[in-house]
Amino acid sequence: MIKLLGLALCKIENKNDLFQAPLYSFLDKGDRVIVDTVRGQKEAVVVSTCSAMPGSDELGMIMKAAGATMPLKKVLKKIREEELVYKDDELDPEEEDDGKQV
């Protein structure tokens, strides 16, 4: 069985850093994520993702280009953006407000 390592290049404060990401995590360019750094958890934006075999020349080249060393810090969470809906927004503007709260 071939073992693969998920990788995510993420931008934090105008600097790109390489992180380990879960394989098949459906991270896409532009996704906002929380990553573990030496300075604690930080928000970052995914620049690119790929996978590589541990110990492979490809992984070595990616890590060298990113200035990363093993062990890589990890992507912890994907930030999901959801539109917030307020109960007031659900009222039909032509309905009269009778003062009762929903």
Write up what this structure looks like:
- This protein has one helix at 57-66; strands at 5-12, 15-21, 32-37, 40-52, 75-78.
- The protein has 102 residues and is mainly β.
- It has one domain.
- The N and C termini lie far apart (57 Å).
Q: Biggest β-sheet, characterized? A: 5 strands, antiparallel
Task: Indicate the radius of gyration in whole angstroms.
Answer: 21 Å
Structural class: mainly beta
Which parts are unreliable, with pLDDT below 50 for 5 consecutive residues or more?
A: none
Q: How far from one another are the termini?
A: 57 Å
- Please write the string of helix (H) and strand (E) elements: EEEEHE
The strand order across the widest sheet is: 2-1-4-3-5
How many E strands? 5
Oligomer: single chain
Number of helices: 1
What is the domain total for the residues?
A: 1
Q: Helicity, in percent?
A: under 10%
**Fraction of residues in β-strands:** 35-45%
- Would you tell me the overall average pLDDT? 89
Coarse shape: elongated
